[in-house]
Amino acid sequence: MKKITIAIDGFSSTGKSTLAKQLAKALGYVYVDTGAMYRAVTLYAMQHNFVSENYLDKEALVKKLPDVQLKFQFNAVLGFAEMFLNGTNVETEIRTLNVSRLVSKIAEISEVRSKLVEQQQQMGKNKAIVMDGRDIGTVVFPDAELKIFMTASPETRAQRRYDELLENGQSVSFADVLQNVKERDFIDTNREDSPLVQAEDAVVVDNSAMSREEQFEVVLSLAHHKLS
Ligand code: DC
Q: What are the pocket residues of ligand 1 if the criterion is a CB atom closer than 6 Å to any ligand atom?
């Protein structure tokens, strides 16, 4: 049976991972959340005091990069793969607002990007993969058969993220979450190395006024079309 590569890119909190997970499950494909990889490197940098709100020791982090071991391990109960940093499950820790605040600084570093892109290309070398991120359709898999670019208004995205953080028991203000969404948009789209841009051949999905189910149906039919 024909196998394809599906790249899902877009702004933060557009529901990329929810869609990518649904799609991977429906097609029996592997799902890879590349944001989790950038978040795990950020957590490593925080643990070693290489980064904080107004500080970044890029050289020290780059030197230590060979020591950063990232692994996805499938959790059958949850139905998706969890992120492990040097053998420790960091799936919950990497989703905190603290990590979200610093991750763009780390994702700007070219040495970090090339290490992670290489791992991502390795994971996708046999196709049958759904990968989400910012540069999947442009840098990681420019030849992906299906590319989706997801977007929604900053307020819609901040509300989703806010609800998620509250659900996880974190006390945050909506204003802080909205500010973080806008800051990350700015950094993600303006960084020098692999900025967030829509691939020319990507299909744009604006889900500001779309339910999860509607969005899934649209993208699943695009995938079936590519597979037929
Ligand atoms: O998808 P996410 O919000 O978990 O991603 C976290 C950060 O990582 C985001 O601010 C941008 C960065 N990122 C990136 O630069 N390239 C990717 N392929 C994935 C994420």
A: 12, 34-35, 38-39, 103-104, 107, 133-135, 184, 188
Structural domains of the chain, with CATH: 5-227 (3.40.50.300)
pLDDT value, residue 5: 98
Q: How far is the CA of 9 from the centre of ligand 1 (A)?
A: 9
CB-count burial class (<10 Å; 0-12, 13-18, 19+) for 57:
middle
* Confidence at residue 61, expressed as pLDDT on a 0 to 100 scale: 98
Nearest CA to ligand 1 atom 6: 35
pLDDT digits over 95-111, tens only? 998 999 999 999 999 99
Residue ID of nearest Cα to ligand 1 atom 5: 35
Confidence of residue 212 (pLDDT cuts 50, 70, 90): confident
**Span 78-93, average pLDDT:** 95
Q: How confident is residue 91, by pLDDT bands cut at 50, 70 and 90?
A: very high
The dihedral over CA atoms of 154, 218, 216, 186, expressed in degrees to the nearest 10, equals -20
- By alpha-carbon position, which residue is closest to atom 10 of ligand 1? 104
